[in-house]
From TrEMBL:
Lineage: Bacteria, Bacillati, Bacillota, Bacilli, Bacillales
InterPro entries per UniProt: MFS, MFS_dom, MFS_trans_sf, NO3_transporter, NO3_transporter_NarK/NarU-like
Transmembrane segments: 12-32, 52-74, 81-99, 111-131, 143-166, 172-193, 214-239, 251-271, 292-317, 359-378, 384-408, 420-441, 447-466
Family, per entry: Belongs to the major facilitator superfamily. Nitrate/nitrite porter (TC 2.A.1.8) family.
Native source organism of the sequence: Marinicrinis sediminis
Membrane-topology descriptor: Multi-pass membrane protein
Stretches assigned to the Major facilitator superfamily (MFS) profile domain: 15-470
Pfam families according to UniProt: MFS_1 (PF07690)
Protein name as catalogued: Nitrate/nitrite transporter
Keywords: Cell membrane, Membrane, Nitrate assimilation, Transmembrane, Transmembrane helix, Transport
Keyword flag Zinc: no
Compartment list: Cell membrane
Domain of life: Bacteria
Amino acid sequence: MLKDLFRFRDERVKVLHFTTIAFFITFVTWFNMAPLATTMIESTGWLTKETLAIFGIINVALTVPARVVIGSLLDRFGPRIVFSALLVTMSIPTFVFAFGNDVAQLAISRLFMSCIGAGFVVGIRMVSEWFPPKQVGFAEGFYAGWGNFGSAFAAMTLPWIALSLIGGDMGWRLSVALTGLICLVYGFIYYAVVKDTPEGKVYARPRKSAAMEVSTWGDMLQLIAWTFPLVGVLGLLVWKLDNKSFLSGTWITALYVLLGLVFLYQLIRILQVNVPILKKGVPEDDRYKFKNVAALNTTYFANFGAELAVVSMLPMFFQQTYAMGPEKAGLIASSFAFVNLFARPLGGFLSDRLNSRKNVMLVYMLGITAGFFAMSFIGSAFPLVLAIGLTILTSMFVQGAEGATFAMIPNIKKRITGQIAGMTGAYGNVGAVTYLTILTFVSPNQFFMILSAGALISLLCCWLMIEEPKNSFADEYEMSSVDREMMETEPVIQPAASPVSTSAKASVVQAPLKFK
């Protein structure tokens, strides 16, 4: 399995690695503030812990809507253009944040930087274009697992660059600016070296990209219902800003009104896209069931949402529970994130290799339920070695479930993979914000119990709602009559040649990857 990842003469492998690097860079940039927080406070004299806590909230503010918007854009324009544009565009607020001289500049730039968290969605569609259904799980898991490692890499390297390599009051500024420069440069590199699809393959696009297509009137009502929390979580963030008295009451009211208008706008777009389609009638072979999307929304809420929440509280939990120093507690807690490097690809691999993607998902969600339930009993009398082992085991299930989630998404409805990935990915952030808000009201042990309950609810949703995708282990994605009709009139949106394609064009056909 692993040796196939080093077959760089195979064009698919090259695209996978170039896309993983792009995602890795987005996470390095997205999480470039937290490791430098103390240095920023000491060097500026006007930043405080409270201000940086607010920046932490702002840092995820636009990620949810950005993932939904990016999902629609990449279905329309292709991942090559969208990923490149996202990297180049996000370098601008990164530079502004690096050299900002007051709280307003840093807050506004951080708000726009939160959009870079949408980069994950782009690679999901790109990878699905290059790998068939029977291999897409492992490929997506490798992409996501190693890309997510960017946050840990930022924590390990940026303080060293700021303090040891550069030093002085400009250390943190130049470290942050370096991540922006890498974004800018790699955005152009990515555009130059990848294609949206293999040679001769047409990029399937939805009939409308303004909103997700559905197949029945009932599914449209479900889509509307599942859209509301995506806006509602932004209201939760506004509420948190209000509690910290960061904005005046007038601004808070204005933001709530704006969010109401945003939901109304989304509702109108959903109706504009789907009412004509449903009135005309959706051919039987072009239908899909939205309940599959809804179930995967719950899984990513319960696994990725839990991961982001746990990573933020675990160091302090171990420090206070076992009366240890912050360095040791941080090292132990980091095991939860480091497992991502192999646990998420493993989840995708098992989803590919076993005969039922649904059953793999059910096992993983059951493991998350049991793992967090067991962690809720960790206390000072609980053996430390056993607590560490339980943390790692739970993390294996959490991140394996993330891999299993996105192993299913490309098989639901191929031409709207971007929009489905955008919604499901956004629900991971919804889960993180929801869980972190709950954490402020409960003890850590109660919090683990709540995470277990969330996973149990998702387990029930998956059991009742998920249907095994058709041809989910096939050599090619299933095409409907509408897909074929559209592809007859759509151009292949890729350059005639690229540095990647010219070197390995034949290998795509002659040397298929085994991943076994």
